[in-house]
Design goal:
Blueprint: H1 3-27, H2 31-51, H3 54-69, E1 82-85, H4 89-93, H5 95-98, H6 101-107, E2 111-114, H7 117-130, H8 139-164
Parallel strand pairs: 1-2
């Protein structure tokens, strides 16, 4: 029950947190301290996600965004050069596949934004919605997909708005 919804929250949160992590690696005044704060906030978010209560998740995200936003930066985040890492879905989040590329680029002053996993989910939904998948989808299932897309978009906008208050994304 509610697996899709909770899974979607986790995907969106992890996408944005990866972007925050990249900015901190590239721009935090004290990277070691910043990453310790980041890891602590990530653990808090994961614990809240496990409970499956969206209101609690929103509160935790607000607290985490505030905490992360207080981390001293070398320069304004909007001035940090950003590189987009795109490619296979697996490579986007697999540290072994990336071979510490994001960390190396951060050492050189670049924040590396990985293409979001949510993008892949949205693409899969779009393929079905456009009817270009291999097997036909019944009308009822397509209507269900449209409704799911509405909720996914709503959650995504809200989660991103909360985490962007950190001014790190």
């Amino acid at each position: 029950k509610d697996f899709e919804r909770r899974g979607w929250w986790a995907v969106v949160v992890s996408d944005v947190m990866e972007d925050i992590r990249a900015m901190l690696l590239a721009n935090a005044a004290d990277t070691r301290s910043a990453m310790a704060t980041f890891e602590g906030e990530w653990e808090n978010i994961l614990a809240t996600l496990e409970k499956g209560d969206y209101r609690q998740l929103e509160k935790q995200l607000q607290q985490s965004a505030a905490s992360l936003g207080r981390i001293p930066q070398k320069r304004p985040p909007e001035t940090v050069p950003v590189i987009t890492l795109a490619g296979e879905i697996f490579v986007r989040r697999d540290a072994l596949s990336r071979q510490f590329l994001t960390e190396e680029l951060a050492r050189r002053g670049f924040a590396t934004v990985c293409s979001p996993v949510a993008e892949w989910v949205k693409y899969c939904n779009w393929v079905i919605d456009e009817g270009i998948n291999d097997s036909p989808v019944p009308v009822f299932q397509r209507l269900k997909l449209k409704l799911r897309n509405l909720f996914q978009n709503r959650y995504e906008r809200r989660i991103k708005a909360i985490l962007s208050s950190s001014n790190l994304v």
